[in-house]
Amino acid sequence: LNSRGWCSGGMEGSVGYSHHHGPPRLWCSAPWALTQLRTLDPEHPAVLAAAAELEAVDRGELTVAVGSLGEPVELLVREQGHDEPIAIARFEAGEAGSLCFRVGAPGTLYVSELRPLAAAGGAGWSRTLHVLAPFPKAWRSHQRVCFTCLSPSVTITLDELHALARPIDCGPAIDRGFGLELELLSVPADTDAGHFSKVAELHALLNEAERVALAAPDAQLATLVRQIRRWQVSLDPACLPFPLPTATLLLPRMRAMGALSDEDALLMLSSRQRTTPTEYKSALPPHELCFSSAEPEKVREGPRESGSVREGPRKSGSILGTPLKSRPCARAEIALGLRLISKLGVSAPSVSESGCECNTSLHVHVNVRSPHARGRLLSAREILAVFLSWVRFDAVTMRFCRSWCWADRWASPLFATGSEFHFSERPLHRGACRAAVRGGGSKLGKYCSLNLLPLRLFGTLEFRRQHASTDETLIARWAHFCVAFVETFAAEDLLEPYLKVGAEEGLMKLKTEQRLATVDELMLRLGARVPPDLPAFLLACGCGPHVADCPEAESF
Question: Is the full-model pTM beyond 0.90?
Answer without folding.
Answer: no
